[in-house]
Specification:
The chain has 13 helices and 18 strands. With 405 residues, it is an alpha/beta fold. It has a 7-stranded mixed sheet, sandwiched between helices. It has a 7-stranded antiparallel sheet with strand order 15-14-13-12-18-17-16. Strand 16 and strand 17 form a beta hairpin. Helix 12 crosses helix 13. The longest helix is centred in the N-terminal third of the chain and has 18 residues. It is globular. The termini are far apart.
């Protein structure tokens, strides 16, 4: 009986669900000005799955209010556990799941909503983009969709990255669009191999927000304010020094060589003088950083990075991350090794992340390591290096899976 209860989801409370849906509609349609250009889920009865790309934290609002059926949405367990409205989330039918880890229990909960006749919405990429480039889709996605055995719709959001970029505290009203169309029928899923399903999903969910902006040319109020963009763009393309890039208002510059540029209201960057070297698209700047790491790692089989950090561990009783003192963390081609003391005894934990493209993280702040239900939040002593650690993570994944930048 316990197992059955833990692996099923209850029907959402219609009052709570309705209130959250109205709030999502307001945030999506009024505050962020999202326009729904196509919605093929309208009028569809019975269960189905919606998968959506993930440009920014506001993406949740868009699909939640666009699917006009009582639905279940999959969200990050870390966010869910620490949210102040957790009890309302429970009543609205959200399904919390560890990011980039999918247990049998998680899958059964997701399938439970479909078996009860309600749609399921989730974000295969797992994390919103830091640099405007789509996060890779976990390889288990196609296998899960085949097991769900329901029609699959794809929701493509465009423009929300520049409305609410991960590196910025500013929220901008632009002209984002949402398009929902059918991707697979149940018959399609039966005929296709898992690898082909994964390939199609990866292709259909891919985006480069800055390349899209070249076509859309949307002017954002405060779109030229780029404070925080130096966090993902931490290496100067002129002198190649790391962590010397800084931002102030609409300026980006290097404190070592004086390389400097500025942003326009479209979010594009330009060199200030003929001598300056600045990438127009921050996404291309990010590719430059990742290519440099790839060359460095491929030329050094013993490449690793290490730092000391403050460690916090999620307490499921208090629903808070609690301080666990200092730790040492190292990343190499086998994953992360965490060393810390608990009750005066040394604890050494290894996290095999070779099949994980990226970890949950906050730019210039922390990243999270997860082991089943345990979540460890790592605050590096050099927090400005957080994005580099995540780029190394991506690089190891690409090298192992022979994926080009």
């Amino acid at each position: 009986m316990t197992t059955k209860k833990n692996n099923s989801v209850a029907k959402p409370n219609l009052l709570v669900y309705g209130i959250l849906k109205i709030g999502s509609w307001f945030m999506s349609r009024i505050f962020y000005n999202v326009k729904i250009v196509k919605n093929e889920t309208k009028g569809v009865k019975g269960p189905f799955v919606v998968i959506q790309n993930h440009e920014s934290k506001m993406d949740f609002y868009t699909s939640y209010c666009a699917v006009n059926r009582v639905s279940h949405v999959v969200i990050s367990n870390s966010f869910y556990q620490t949210s102040k409205i957790r009890k309302y989330m429970d009543k609205s039918g959200v399904i919390p799941k560890q990011q980039f880890q999918t247990s049998i229990g998680d899958l059964k909960k997701m399938k439970s909503s479909l078996e009860q006749g309600r749609p399921l919405i989730f974000y295969p990429q797992g994390l919103m983009s830091e640099d405007g480039i789509a996060t890779a889709v976990p390889k288990a996605t196609g296998k899960a969709l085949k097991w769900f055995n329901q029609d699959v719709y794809i929701a493509n959001i465009s423009g929300t990255y520049l409305s609410n970029p991960k590196w910025s505290k500013i929220k901008r009203r632009g002209k984002p669009t949402l398009s929902i169309s059918k991707l697979f029928s149940k018959d399609d899923l039966m005929k296709l191999e898992v690898e082909e399903i994964d390939r199609i999903i990866e292709e259909k969910l891919y985006f480069d927000a800055y390349k899209n902006q070249e076509n859309n040319r949307v002017i954002y109020k405060k779109g030229d304010l780029i404070e925080g963009l130096h966090l993902p763009l931490y290496k100067c393309p002129k002198c190649e020094k790391e962590f010397t890039v800084k931002t102030s208002k609409n300026k980006i510059y290097c404190t070592h060589c004086g390389n400097k540029g500025f942003a326009d209201k479209l979010g594009f960057l330009y060199p200030e003088t003929k001598e300056d070297i600045i990438f127009k698209h921050p996404s291309d700047w990010s590719r430059y950083l990742q290519k440099g790491l790839e060359d460095e790692i491929e030329n050094d089989i013993n490449y690793s990075i290490k730092d000391y950090a403050k460690l916090e561990i999620l307490n499921y009783d208090t629903h808070k991350f609690e301080n666990n003192g200092e730790c040492e963390v190292e990343l190499d081609n086998s994953g992360y090794t965490l060393k810390y003391y608990k009750n005066n005894e040394l604890v050494i934990k290894h996290f095999d992340t070779t099949n994980i493209y990226l970890l949950p993280f906050d730019s210039g702040n922390y990243f999270e390591l997860q082991d089943k239900l345990d979540i460890y939040r790592i605050y590096l002593h050099h927090p400005e290096q957080t994005s580099k650690w995540m780029n190394i993570n991506k690089t190891y994944y690409r090298i192992k899976n022979d994926i080009k930048i």
